[in-house]
Amino acid sequence: xxxxxxxxxxxxxxxxxxxxxxxxxxxxxxxxxxxxxxxxxxxxxxxxxxxxxxxxxxxxxxxxxxxxxxxxxxxxxxxxxxxxxxxxxxxxxxxxxxxxxxxxxxxxxxxxxxxxxxxxxxxxxxxxxxxxxxxxxxxxxxxxxxxxxxxxxxxxxxxxxxxxxxxxxxxxxxxxxxxxxxxxxxxxxxxxxxxxxxxxxxxxxxxxxxxxxxxxxxxxxxxxxxxxxxxxxxxxxxxxxxxxxxxxxxxxxxxxxxxxxxxxxxxxxxxxxxxxxxxxxxxxxxxxxxxxxxxxxxxxxxxxxxxxxxxxxxxxxxxxxxxxxxxxxxxxxxxxxxxxxxxxxxxxxxxxxxxxxxxxxxxxxxxxxxxxxxxxxxxxxxxxxxxxxxxxxxxxxxxxxxxxxxxxxxxxxxxxxxxxxxxxxxxxxxxxxxxxxxxxxxxxxxxxxxxxxxxxxxxxxxxxxxxxxxxxxxxxxxxxxxxxxxxxxxxxxxxxxxxxxxxxxxxxxxxxxxxxxxxxxxxxxxxxxxxxxxxxxxxxxxxxxxxxxxxxxxxxxxxxxxxxxxxxxxxxxxxxxxxxxxxxxxxxxxxxxxxxxxxxxxxxxxxxxxxxxxxxxxxxxxxxxxxxxxxxxxxxxxxxxxxxxxxxxxxxxxxxxxxxxxxxxxxxxxxxxxxxxxxxxxxxxxxxxxxxxxxxxxxxxxxxxxxxxxxxxxxxxxxxxxxxxxxxxxxxxxxxx
Length: 737
Ligand code: DGJ
Fold this sequence. Notes:
This protein is of the alpha+beta class. The protein is 19% helix and 30% strand.
């Protein structure tokens, strides 16, 4: 291996601007705990030299050798943005055909710039300018380092001034290189409706592993754009504090592709971006193509730190109102489905008020007149109140809610249309469908062509119209129940732009709505949770993780989501799915944003009283659950574990909420010994008190009050006594010193 110790320009000053003068340029991008070192060599090739723990002394980055070891025939394996058509032999990050038909590209370093964009939150933006030495074609690599939360956001900007159009065939957001481990283990997730976020871990072997989606709208129904890499050894899911872990998320609510390539020298190349499948992009001179962001965080202290990094970052920098509050709600969907009227809804609202929720959410079925939305075969797209079900309109309901003292929210699925609708009859050209082939439906519906500005206007006006007409409207549940079949736009000049322009259209609508309604909570839903990513979560305050609300299933689904998303964003509703006791289903829903979607009138008195009390207890616990740090203690995914156990600890470590759920129902399954807690202050004493017990619970088996030190609880632990009679336990910890 050729080791360089060369002249280096290193700077982490607030603003730096360096021009290469045939010298090596080191560009460290750092957060509190992470460093990425990029280096431009004397040939102008830019490489990723290091991704890992931040070094104590910034000057030491210059000593890191290049990866130009034996077997790299191209000198490009570690490229920070691998081009194609010249000497590259591996998977490219960018592939283009120039205006003159030439398919080659080289990108040489020009200069870089580092700006501290936000001195308060310590966000530093590093911009690296690259250009082709032959063609007037430029790429800018952007890296935003969120110092305090240890997240790095990366995207690329592509532009040219060639005479004519350049065809972009591949245009990644990120191209990372890892050369620090012997082995790499990938945990990715798969699923389908009601089976979201099932993890699977594999060792990465030479060749390419691809995660992708081609569904168009519901990007992650089969495979979410979130993953975890463990360096050297598989993840120890039973010890969240161990291991060198990197987790990534592509912030794109559409077709994506993430490739993991173990190269011939056994290093890991990671390429992430929009899926190039059926998506050649025709870029005119002077126009910019900006890729979506790829986000990642890393820790040498295990998956627990990685998750807490995501959560803090998301609350602070990504999710609207992330550090704010949320509303508990009652949804009518699983009580009424499409069959309701004003009287039924107002009586549900009254029960909701009596229960103690903050908001009533009216779901699907309130619209359509020529084709009333009485089932999912018709009416979608006709957003006028159904006069039979709601003769006095939505205002009657918002007023009724106001009189009762609760808020009112509404379901909408504005990206979609049923063929049996007036919208379809009047605007066939707005529908994504092949003009000369039979239509093919997903849940009896078709997506609208959001790449068409007229459709964007229609969708914006539909939602804006609801808010304008009903100023008391306080919440939106935005659903998306179909994928894109027969991808074809009747207005887009480039069919291969459709998948990309669909998502851009969606973001443009959402961004207009967010600007106009900055404080309105909006739930991202997609026939379950198959749509969430950190692109969509720029606009939505929360998301629906799955239609599967079976308590036991939910332990697993929610657990997986905690790897990436904070609990304030997870809508968990108590429903009639599953055979678990009401307490179990309530306790699992409390591990996020609690809501109800069940026929409350059918609850017996003690179930109703229990639920009322649960909401009161939740209002005391929710601040710590929503804004605290999560520590996963016992994983339900590890074979042999009878429980799932996790704790949320508030910032001052004065309050914590500890959940334990039984996940094995075999003979004598339960917790036979202590579980060691985490995240507490060893020097504080905590009073432990079991809460949210069912009214008839024998007080003698309820845990607490008992006072123990944080030191004791973290070193020796405590047994929450989960067993077949106590299938879920919530213990509240309050510091007494
Ligand atoms: C799918 C959602 O996941 C459900 O909660 C409900 O809103 C239905 N759509 C309504 O059609």
